[in-house]
Amino acid sequence: MKTINAGTESRSEFTVGGQDLASVYGSGSLPVYATPAMVALMEKTACKLIEPYLEAGETTVGIAIEAKHLKATLPGMKVTCLARLSVMEGRKLVFEIEVSDALSMVGMARHERFLVFSEAFLEKAEENKKACAR
Quick check: is 126 catalytic? Predict the structure, then answer.
């Protein structure tokens, strides 16, 4: 992986749709932006940030996320996600992430990802699958 400077940012815009609701995800009963959907947007934005720095055969996997969902968002509303790399420690990357609508912050998170080699990672996963099937 190429070196990424702390403070490097990526931004994504997203319009909340009917498939993104707590009532659809099963994470609640109301037709508002689901926390799992917001967390997925946060991870996607972090991945978008590091994608240009990956070498052939490399990828990252999420290993931790501590998220707070601060405000309800209705379908049709646009949110903006900003991911900022705060720390790169060897193969571990730490991000500070914010999701906002036009007026205020909707959510925030601290997210950790780990650099892996795709082929070796999938081989280990396959070994685990076989061991679980015994």
Answer: no
